[in-house]
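Customer escalation, tier 2.

The customer says the design service returned an amino acid string that "doesn't look like it belongs to this structure." They asked us to rerun it and document both sides in this ticket. The original structure tokens are below, unchanged.
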């Protein structure tokens, strides 16, 4: 992990609502119909124990899943997440700030 934004990633901007303050999120387009996403974390994303808050990861995952559905053309209508499940096994390693990519 690094605190530098990898080459080719651009800010994924939201002008209003929760997502305008949740990130910053980043995306990278490729020649294939694939988008890659990243999240820049900092001290403001930590829980009281000083590790990345699970809610930050859940918000990021929800945003990535919703964006994938939208860009896949699965729906042109607004949609909502009904249920997401997060089971925490251990803290996310590394100090903050860090650059994080989903695997």
């Amino acid at each position: 992990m690094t605190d530098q934004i990898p080459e080719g990633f651009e800010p994924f901007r939201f002008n209003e609502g929760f997502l305008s303050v949740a990130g910053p999120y980043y995306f990278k387009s490729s020649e294939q119909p694939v988008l890659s996403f990243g999240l820049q974390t900092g001290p403001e994303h930590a829980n009281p124990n000083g590790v990345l808050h699970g809610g930050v990861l859940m918000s990021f995952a929800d945003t990535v899943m919703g964006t994938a559905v939208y860009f896949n053309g699965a729906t042109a209508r607004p949609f909502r997440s009904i249920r997401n499940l997060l089971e925490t096994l251990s803290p996310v390693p590394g100090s903050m700030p860090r650059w994080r990519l989903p695997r």
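Tier 2 assessment: The sequence is consistent with the input. The chain has a mean pLDDT of 79. The longest strand covers residues 35-41. Sent an explanation to the customer and offered a walkthrough call.
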